[in-house]
Amino acid sequence: MSDKRKLILACAEQLLLAEGDSAFSMQTIADKVGISKGAIYLHFKSKDELLLAVFESQTADLLDKIRAILESDKLTPIAKLKQQIRFQHEDLQQYQAMFQLLLQEESLSFSNNLIMFYQEFRLTWLTLQEGFLLENYGEQVRPWKTDLAMTLDGIIANYLSLPVIEGIDFDTEKLVNWVVSCMDSICTALPNQALLPVLTEQDFPSQKEIEAKKRQLHEQKIQQAFIQLQEKSQKLKLTPQKREIVDHTIALLEAQLQSKNPDTVLIRALIAGLRDYRGLNTQRQLLAERLNVEAV
């Protein structure tokens, strides 16, 4: 990720956390970064793409904190379960603006990227919840681990929505004790009942399937960026010698992008070789961004 992209993303996150979704606009972010609005589109093609990057950054931080609780060797299993419920109530307030945006249908178009982001986040989140439950209630509840994780998450999520939507707050420890008591009752009784699971992990896309779809979409983005560069290069007014150089560079780039084993160093050098053609600057930077190489 380029330094400029990191700066835009950091400012977008700060704006969302400090002023909420109503202040979140490309122009406001551009003003805070100190660049033109058009310059943002070199790194994020739309507001949706920038918001998605913010969501990915914030949820990664959230998951790391929950994972740290689950993997702690200083807490007992029941203490871990209580601590993660406590964390969700007390510390998730900093993510309130993000959740408000996700709850507003008009805020985002539900692109394939957003759907996959949600699927991946949900899969990781449910896996963590299953971990807390299996540590506390053992292998006897494993057949129902997905249903139990959904139940645990559903109870907590409904309570957490109240401050965001209704402005209603409540005592954290009361919530912790209530949720743990509910899960104790369910998990104690469940092995003695002849209940079939409603859902299992097979009902959800696997991490491997999600990653495959993400790679496919990313490859499509790279191809789109290359086509833009290729089309723009054809419109340049060049001397015959320079035309031959540009066309040859574009052809080599295309060959590398189609290769099963592309040479990253060569790709970087080819993109850098187009820097003297100012008319291609926007397109070559976009391609470099998509390929995660520096556009020197």
What does this structure look like?
The chain has 296 residues and is an all-alpha fold. It folds into three domains: 1-45, Arc Repressor Mutant, subunit A, CATH 1.10.10; 59-205, Tetracycline Repressor, domain 2, CATH 1.10.357; 208-291, no CATH class. The protein has helices at residues 3-19, 26-33, 37-40, 47-70, 77-91, 96-103, 112-137, 145-166, 172-189, 207-235, 240-258, 264-272, 281-291. The model has no long low-confidence stretch (mean pLDDT 88).
CATH second-level architecture of the largest domain: Orthogonal Bundle
From the 3D structure, determine the CATH topology of the largest domain. Answer: Tetracycline Repressor, domain 2
Order of helices and strands: HHHHHHHHHHHHH
Judging from the principal axes of the Cα atoms, what is the shape?
elongated
Structural domain count: 3
Work out the number of β strands: 0
The CA-CA distance between the termini, in Å, is 13 Å
Question: What profile does the largest beta sheet have?
Answer: none
Determine the structural class based on helices, strands and strand pairing: mainly alpha
Give a brief outline of the structure:
The chain has 296 residues and is an all-alpha fold.
Keywords:
296 residues, mainly alpha, Tetracycline Repressor, domain 2, 13 helices
Detail the topology: elements first, then pairings.
Layout: H1 3-19, H2 26-33, H3 37-40, H4 47-70, H5 77-91, H6 96-103, H7 112-137, H8 145-166, H9 172-189, H10 207-235, H11 240-258, H12 264-272, H13 281-291
Helix pairs in contact: 1-2, 1-4, 4-7, 5-7, 5-9, 7-8, 7-10, 8-9, 10-11, 10-13, 11-12
